[in-house]
Amino acid sequence: MPLAPADDAFLETLRARLPGDVLRPAEARYLEEPRGRWSGAPTHVALPRSVDEVADIVRACAEARVGIVPYGGGTGLVGGQVMPGGAEAPLLLSLERMNAVRGVWAEENVLVAEAGAILAEVQGAAREAGRLFPLSLASEGSARMGGLLATNAGGVNVLRYGNARDLCLGLEAVLPSGEIWHGLRRLRKDNTGYDLRNLLIGAEGTLGVITAASLRLFPMPAATGTALLVVESPAAALGLLAMARTQMGEAVSAFEIMGRTGWEFLAETLPEVRLPFDDAPEWSVLVEVGLPRGLSPAEALEELFADAFEAGLVSDGLVAQSEAQAAEFWQVRERIPEANRKIGAVSSHDISVPLSAIPDFIPEGMRRLAAVGDFRVNCFGHVGDGNLHYNVFPAPGRSRADHEHQRDEIKRVLHDLVHEMGGSVSAEHGIGRLKVDDLERYQDPAKLNAMRAIKDALDPSGIMNPGAVLRAR
Amino acid sequence: MPLAPADDAFLETLRARLPGDVLRPAEARYLEEPRGRWSGAPTHVALPRSVDEVADIVRACAEARVGIVPYGGGTGLVGGQVMPGGAEAPLLLSLERMNAVRGVWAEENVLVAEAGAILAEVQGAAREAGRLFPLSLASEGSARMGGLLATNAGGVNVLRYGNARDLCLGLEAVLPSGEIWHGLRRLRKDNTGYDLRNLLIGAEGTLGVITAASLRLFPMPAATGTALLVVESPAAALGLLAMARTQMGEAVSAFEIMGRTGWEFLAETLPEVRLPFDDAPEWSVLVEVGLPRGLSPAEALEELFADAFEAGLVSDGLVAQSEAQAAEFWQVRERIPEANRKIGAVSSHDISVPLSAIPDFIPEGMRRLAAVGDFRVNCFGHVGDGNLHYNVFPAPGRSRADHEHQRDEIKRVLHDLVHEMGGSVSAEHGIGRLKVDDLERYQDPAKLNAMRAIKDALDPSGIMNPGAVLRAR
To the nearest whole angstrom, how far is the Cα of A401 from the nearest Cα of chain B? Predict the structure, then answer.
């Protein structure tokens, strides 16, 4: 049975159940997404102020069989927050007014934030309490906690601190039935029944709406250090990573690889970004460490540099001598996505493979791409996690439009390779609406069947984020 | 519709589908559990050698609607592995023959083990590869990986490395339909659909049978150190923990509290255990740290001791000067459960509360217990995780049998208090069959409804570990 549209009659009913200003026509910004692939059908957005209002909205939608698209900061890259379509226009549900940090328990290393809280503000609230909330990614100034959890966001500190799911102790959420799950526990250990928390995390709003979360904080490392090291190859980068972890254990908090193409794109499109070496290195690695007191990160990184040079893993490098220099190194890494957008990718891939497959994956991907056409590849990312952004660009002088017809083939060629190597076609961005086909093609059939059974059990009418992750039925 | 028994006709059919020696009558050891509360109905046990055989068995049970009780090392403390009953005798499914370590990828920090692998052997395989598999608990010599994951086991290193679920990257499992989920990924990041892995972990065999897992390994800390410190109170213990984490960050790998009663029980029942102080301290803490190279754990612990003494948190203490002395300190902590068994608990409680509630919980629990009767409490455990074993014993001269009639009341009183304080009535042991009533009483109703919906969706006949976690219908 198809869903009903969020039409005038429905909106009228809903308006009667809510305070006056909760419902309004959705401005354009709610109907766009960062890569410009989709635009949402014109509809209304609900802006609740409390979990009870969220529950009222979900119940009304469940009764009327109207679809709901939960909306966080709108930064998702796979279209999970934008539902195209006409006849069945869904209701958007933005959590932006539920943006409080409800509490910080520094002595417990716990913070409770509402779903609409912006990541940078959560980081700041932790910092004020002398603690670290380690989730960190390019969109942290606008991404909101609900969306970050719904998509199990990754970022640059996963190596040490884990993905978003690893940073969450408990949730408050509204289930598709409209029931409120009061699960905001501040416990490290709680083995009382099925792990509903991790089921909602990463479900991209298809099994319920996260309204608040209790989050893990960490002690601030006594001192941090940053180095930019030139490596001969991705294999040498992995050798360097192993050496760093042998020397410093979990203190290695970020380990990011960059290929020459990224540096070239920066030089071409963002000349204000200072590049620390005169010649763009074929491969370079940004290493960040946070050490306990008694150790000097600069000395530890100098020692790593010397040992890795000795071992033939590193040919050149710089250890940041100040916070300003560390920030300069990070600028190189963090502005690559902006340079990419200026160049214009034919196809972008957020993939992971087992760590030991990285050195084979990178050149083999290029070989297979060369059979499709003449492309440039900008390969960069969280190599310490086996997670690469492997983005394909036109050769100089050509535009993405010239290759539009090859996008599906490129995606297929690269994702097939990832799959052959035991990897994932979505390492950190999720499935959204962009990768529904990929999920069907590559996911284990038994898992896919289980996912569909769970979706039908918890959301029998299919109102929660219809068409995201699983095809709408 | 009730389940069918694993009767002769069923066993005949099943035998025809399997190699000759897979099925046999279950010896007594399969029908007992460590606390002696239940004994299983006489039945047969299946001992498959491969995931395909497991799938054959599950399919046969699904077709005939025969219950399956998955069996690991038999060390569970809540009766998840023992199904009492007569008419509907289930089939036991022991994974003990699937005990291989399928592979170790040291450079990836990954190990793949089958469900029947014993924890100590997995630890050993990691150690041989120069890596650490940090899951560690009293029963590690007999507990098997499948059971450890199915119950999301905890232990002494959760503070630093997390629970069993945090150590698992992927699973191979047979779902209640008999489908095999091939999910043995070696990836740190994989956002492709619902988190079936975490749903099976902690489901105690009620949603499927785990047959193998890919597990996270860690670099070995360059050096470890151990101290036994006398603290004035549980509040002082938490102050010491905060100080330790400020000084050493995540390097604090274990932080165990012991009350005077535990030491008294050791002196009374296990005189061969050497107690490092002449007078049993009211409260003491066992601290273990693993530091990166360049730091001396002994020096770091001496410094912590001095600072904590200065701050009035610690009144006495010993920093181990050798591995032998560290082992001696650990003996005190690890043999408390054995001493408990010799004394004979009226009621044992594996609870957690938010860290900041610990100092109130311990005395308030004693106050409420005193209203029930005259008891001794042995309170010890993983205080760094907010997880206490709060075990209630008869006063000297009385036996557990004298208080049998008060067991339910004691449990109710303590669990009500835990619940009031936002805690969990099963921190690390799970629900099994022992705590099904507690789950119904204390769990959030929305979560409980979601759990039942998931169970019905994935296991519509209810064959998987019937009556564990959720009441059989």
Answer: 29
Write the pLDDT tens digit of every residue in B37-71. Answer: 888 888 999 999 999 999 999 999 999 999 999 99
For residue A165, which residues of chain B lie inside 8 Å, CB to CB? 195, 198
Domains of chain B: 8-96 (3.30.43.10), 101-219 (3.30.465.10), 223-337 (3.30.70.2190), 344-429 (3.30.70.2740)
User: Hey, what long-range contacts does B304-308 have (CB within 8 A, 24 or more apart)?
Assistant: B304/B227, B304/B240, B304/B243, B304/B244, B304/B247, B304/B248, B305/B227, B305/B229, B307/B243, B307/B247, B308/B229, B308/B239, B308/B240, B308/B243
Please name the member of A154, A181, A294 whose beta carbon is closest to the beta carbon of B189: A154
Contact B198 A199 (CB under 8 A): yes
Segment A422-472, tens digit of pLDDT: 999 999 999 999 999 999 999 999 999 999 999 999 999 999 999 999 998
CA-based nearest residue in chain B for residue A358: B108
3-class DSSP string for chain B:
CCCECCCHHHHHHHHHHCCCCCEEECCHHHHCCCCCCCCCCCCEEECCCCHHHHHHHHHHHHHHCECEEEECCCCCCCCCCCCCCCCCCCEEEECCCCCCEEEEEHHHCEEEEECCCEHHHHHHHHHHCCEECCCECCCCCCCEHHHHHHCCCCECCHHHHCCHHHHEEEEEEECCCCCEEEECCCCCCCCCCCCHHHHHCCCCCCCCEEEEEEEECEECCCEEEEEEEEECCHHHHHHHHHHHHHHHHHHEEEEEEEEHHHHHHHHHHCCCCCCCCCCCCCEEEEEEEEECCCCCHHHHHHHHHHHHHHCCCEEEEEECCCHHHHHHHHHHHHCHHHHHHHHCCCECCEEECCHHHHHHHHHHHHHHHHCCCCEEEEEEEEHHHCEEEEEEEECCCCCHHHHHHHHHHHHHHHHHHHHHCCCECCCCCCCCCCCHHHHHHHCCHHHHHHHHHHHHHHCCCCCECCCCCCCCC
Cβ-based contacts under 8 A for chains A and B: 298
Q: Which two structure tokens, joined as six digits, stand for B157?
A: 């290193």
> What's the confidence (pLDDT) of residue B86?
59
Which chain A residues in 370-389 lie under 8 Å from chain B, judged by CB atoms? 382, 385-387
Residue A29 confidence (pLDDT) above 60: yes
The structure tokens listed for B457 are: 């969706």
B291/A292 CB distance under 8 A: yes
Is this complex's ipTM strictly greater than 0.95?
yes
Is B444–A182 a contact, with Cβ atoms under 8 angstroms apart? yes
Task: Using alpha carbons only, give the angle B356, B358, B363 rounded to the nearest 5 degrees.
Answer: 135
Over the range B121-130, which residues count as b (16 or more CB within 10 Å of their CB) and which as e? bbbebbeebe
**Surface of A (185-244) touching B: CB under 8 A:** 185-196, 198-199, 201-203, 207, 218-219, 221-222, 238, 242
Residues of chain A in contact with residue B388, where contact means CB-CB under 8 angstroms, are none
Tokens of B129: 């590869």
Instruction: Please check whether residue A423 touches B, CB under 8 A.
Output: yes
Question: What's residue B250's pLDDT?
Answer: 86
